[in-house]
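Complex record, two chains
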Amino acid sequence: MATIKTLLLATIALCIGLAAFIYSGAYPVGADVPHTAFTNWVLETLRDRSIERASKDIQVPDLDDPELLIEGGPDYNEMCVGCHLKPGGKESELSQGLYPAPPDLTKRASDPRRQFWAIKHGIKASGMPAWGPTHDDQRIWAMVAFLQKLPELTPQQYQILTARDEEAPDHHH
Amino acid sequence: MKIFTPLLIVTLLLTLAAQAHDPSQHKDKAEKPQCAALKDMDIKKMDKQDPVTQALIKKCMKQLHPEEKPETEK
């Protein structure tokens, strides 16, 4: 009985301490002050496991269709390059200022399921918006197809594939 | 007045969020594909089965071979 009472008191004290810490405003929320290692681990693990779980059943279409690259390239250049960079490009103000730092997608391609999910749903408190409400799945898959090839593109190839040629037929109706 | 300002901001944000990213908005400031760079890449040595090569050739067909009509117009 005494053990239960002690545990109960400890739990109440912990809750009061946690609430006091939250209301104190002592935790720095500025993007220029990194999280503690523990907070960082908690948030990164939470994010990775959540995306892994949510995206595991997504069916990946054939991403080797050149039409998808032609369609996805201009969208990437207009919507993503400011944070996720381009081949031969320098770091941007956004890529340096955001916290957590957005991944440099010119370095390596990650799992297409995870990319599709992150583009469609966004990620809370990271600066990554959800493009799903305004972009259909076909258009998001085109961006994923482009992301899969992005690390191997030269700056010249990137320029050609991302230019929105006004004479080319419009892929979005 | 205090209550109207947040309402106005929320309304404005919702209005902006409802607008899809429209490619036609970017056409005015869009740059053309610089296909001259493709000539320097030696297309013969490029893998024709590679989706990137196919996309590059498709995108630059008009600039590199203006006399040839795209498949859809034949």
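Note: The interface with chain B takes residues 64-70, 73-75, 78-79, 131, 133-135, 145, 149, 152-153, 156-157, 159-161, 163-172 of chain A (CB under 8 Å).
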